[in-house]
Amino acid sequence: MSRVCFQLQVKPDRLAEYTQRHAAVWPEMLQAIEDAGRRNYSLFLREDGLLIGYYESDDDEGSQASLDADPRTAAWEAQMSEFFVSLEGRPDQNAARLAEVFNLEEQLAAL
């Protein structure tokens, strides 16, 4: 299983709208994410626009490819790209990934 954490920067003047849009994500987008094999997916937004996302997947490359090819995701991602600072292309494909440096469960299991 892969644990994936990523970072994006939401434009300061679009924070309220970004939050509002994510209060009720389109049902077809939710289903596409689930169908792609992502689970435990969360987004965290700081007041200055720093967005941190996290999800788990058994096959992250396959998940990325599935979402990229899924026609249900294109319109959502096109709309969401307008919210981000200095981002070319689709947010789900171009977000900066963060390296995992600690995991409690893994270290406890190793004891």
List key phrases describing it.
6 helices; alpha+beta; 111 residues; Alpha-Beta Plaits
Describe this structure in words.
- The chain is of the alpha+beta class.
- Helices cover 45% and strands 24% of the residues.
- It has one domain: Alpha-Beta Plaits, CATH 3.30.70.
- Strands 2-3-1-4 form a four-stranded antiparallel beta sheet.
- Low-confidence runs of at least 5 consecutive residues: none
- What is the total tally of β strands? 4
CATH topology: Alpha-Beta Plaits
Q: Would you list the SSEs in sequence order as H and E? A: EHHEEHHHEH
Distance between the termini: 20 Å
Question: How much is the average pLDDT?
Answer: 92
Largest sheet: 4 strands, antiparallel
Give the CATH level 1 class: Alpha Beta
Number of helices: 6
Summarize, please:
Helices cover 45% and strands 24% of the residues. By secondary structure, it is of the alpha+beta class. A 4-stranded antiparallel sheet has the order 2-3-1-4.
Topology:
Blueprint: E1 2-9, H1 15-23, H2 27-35, E2 38-45, E3 50-57, H3 60-69, H4 71-81, H5 91-94, E4 96-98, H6 104-110
Antiparallel strand pairs: 1-3, 1-4, 2-3
